[in-house]
Amino acid sequence: MAIYIPEEKLLEIRSAANISDIISERVVLKKTGKDLVGLCPFHSEKTPSFSVSPVKQIFHCFGCGAGGDVFSFLMKHDGIGFSDAVSSLARRYGIDLPTGDMTPGQKKNISERQQLFDLNKQVLSFFVSRLASRVEGEKARAYLKKRGFSQEIIKAFGLGFAPDEWDSLVRFFQKINVPQSIAEKTGLIVPRKNQGFYDRFRNRIMFPIFDVTHQVIGFGGRVLDDSKPKYLNSPETIIYNKSKSLFGAQAARNKARETGCVYIVEGYFDLLAMHQHGITNTVATLGTALTAEHVRLLRRGFAQKAFLLFDSDEAGLKAAQRSVSLFMNEAMDAVVIVLPKGYDPDSYMFEFGRPAFETLSEKAAGMVEFLIESAISVNGLSMEGKVRIISELTGPLSEINDHVARSIYIQYLSERIGVDESAISEKIQAEGKRAAYHQPVAQSGHPCETEPQTDGENAISPEMNRLEKHIMTMMLKFPGILPEIKKRRVLEFFSDKQLIAIGALLLEHPVVTQEDLSGLMNRLASPDDQRIIASLAICDDCWDYETGDKLLCQFLNSRQRRQGSLLNQIKAAEKNNDDTLLFELLRKKQAQRANR
User: Pairing relation of β-strands 261-265 and 282-284?
Assistant: First the structure.
């Protein structure tokens, strides 16, 4: 059910919420003139086309067309509704939202996402208190101490303990009066076969998983002995997606941005060891292989280069093979650090320390070089070994979209193993065609990636559409021209119905100040309308009465010539008694009127 939020309250939230701060938590932004630019989080690109205006408090991507205000960004980026975006910002900036006009049901269900965030925060406190408990947490504290972790690192990452009981968390939820329907959605309790619930995590060290805004989105747990499974994670919920989340992201982001690089490990303790030894630009995957979403998150929000720490065994090699195309296709540099056999980042850091690790980092190999050398080491350079090497590398190399990069790697492989380059290239191309053949047919694209469909009679010429948008920009930037727009009834000659509606709103509510622009955004219910306003407002065109008058004359003269031409054609058809042509021309004239 929709919740009414007064316009003045939305303006208050917009004024308090700096769009640059909100977006920079999710996208690396660099200052360019008055604006900030970065890689667009809504489509894949190598050159930044995503622009944020701190002055106008809007964003716009010149690549895919996405745009709007701070609410629009959160809705699109975080996949939430308008009321959730408003509630989230209101809570962040300590602004109370009105509840007087809401029913009890509306008050209770303002935001399921926010309820889960709040509940996870309480669960975090519960696990932390259990670890600190003199009796309950004794074994867990001893285990962490034996592993070498300091109290500072334990506190910094909010480590806790899930008691060795079937219903300790169930009873905690009951104690704080959390409905079972909400508690179950956290994924922390599991329904029994008959009735009731039991705790998902029992007798485990607990690791809270934060998003980049420091909100708890899930948990991971590690047993204190050799029980299976050794690690257990929260199931996916509306706020937690393993393929888009990284452990330690909130702690690593600032250092990663500062250094331009990020280390990627596979385990919770690996990450803690890295941070404890000062390598704080480290993140970890959450029980899943690296995904394109992970790489995209790191490339656009953290750093330009990744150091991957894989085990030197067969599993590590396969992990590297899966990751090559992910980094290549997101234009992110990646190298592989190979630890000595039998070591993981946790054990290596505690035994050899940071200086030895940094020496290894300096010797890190590029991902493709690592794959080639690893394959040679495993298979050898016999005839059979070369066949196996090419077979193993065909898949990873065929998934690299950059043809130049792929060609360079094929040339290197050819020289390294002494096999004709064209033969390797032919096999890789065949693999690429086979993969494309078996790939599911793509569904229709995102609206911003497709051109609007129009029929012949109602199609708007590119030149006319350009002029109409130019006039809209002028109406936004130079409200002094609005009386002339009204006087000459300019909007009546527009072809684009969407621009006509927005223009009418501008005539009624001129944009003179930043608050007026925010007010206009409030009145635009359609995200597409907000996108158009953002794309027009982001430009820094300067207007005066003289240039405005010239633009209006050019537009009106063009329209009148077009209408005059149609009227002449109608008269000629009448004179020649050509009823078929006359009917067609009259239909076009009627369509023009309908478009106004």
Answer: parallel
Domain 112-240: which CATH number of 3.40.1080.10, 3.90.980.10, 3.40.50.2000, 3.40.50.1220 = 3.90.980.10
CA distances from 123 to 140, 207, 219, 419, 532 (A): 18, 11, 10, 59, 43
User: Under DSSP, is residue 83 helix (H, G, I), strand (E, B) or coil?
Assistant: helix
What mean pLDDT do residues 124-132 have? 97
Count Cβ atoms within 10 A of the Cβ of residue 201 and give its class: 0-12 exposed, 13-18 middle, 19 or more buried: buried
User: Which pair of tokens denotes residue 273?
Assistant: 């060891």
Alpha-carbon gap, residue 590 to 578, rounded angstroms: 18
Query: Can you name the residues that pair with 516 across neighbouring β-strands?
Result: none
Kindly report the pTM of this predicted structure. Answer: 0.73
H-helix or E-strand spanning residue 530: helix 527-537
Categorize the per-residue pLDDT at 497 as very low, low, confident or very high, splitting at 50, 70 and 90. confident
Q: Cβ distance 67 to 535 under 8 Å?
A: yes
Q: Are 76 and 26 in contact (CB under 8 A)?
A: no
Q: What confidence tier does 382 reach under pLDDT thresholds 50, 70, 90?
A: very high
Find all residues with CB under 8 Å of 528, minimum gap 6, and list them. 447, 498
User: What are residue 398's phi and psi, to 5 degrees?
Assistant: -70, -20
Helical (H) or strand (E) element with 508: helix 497-508
Is a pLDDT exceeding 80 seen at residue 589? no
Band (128; pLDDT cuts 50, 70, 90):
very high
Q: Where are the beta strands (DSSP E) in 54-126?
A: 58-61, 67-68
> Which pLDDT tens digit goes with each residue over 294-337?
998 898 889 889 999 876 667 766 777 788 888 888 888 999 99
Exposed, middle or buried by CB within 10 Å (0-12, 13-18, 19+), for 14?
A: buried
Tell me, what DSSP letter sits at residue 441?
Answer: P
What distance lies between CA 399 and its chain's CA centroid?
22
Homologous superfamily (CATH) for 7-108: Zinc finger, CHC2-typedomain (3.90.580.10)
Q: Is the pLDDT of residue 245 over 90?
A: yes
Say how many Å lie between the first and final Cα of the chain, rounded: 35
Helix/strand/coil for 306: strand
DSSP result, 1-57: ------HHHHHHHHHHS-HHHHHHTTS--EEETTEEEE--TTS--SS--EEEETTTT
Domain 249-437 belongs to what topology?
Answer: Dna Topoisomerase Vi A Subunit; Chain: A, domain 2 (3.40.1360)
State pLDDT tens for residues 47-101.
899 999 998 899 999 999 999 999 999 988 887 878 888 888 988 888 887 765 5
CA dihedral of 434, 437, 438, 444, whole degrees rounded to 10:
150
Is residue 115 within 8 Å of 42, Cβ to Cβ? no
284 Cβ contact list (under 8 Å, min separation 6): 246, 247, 248, 264, 265, 266, 267, 268, 270, 271
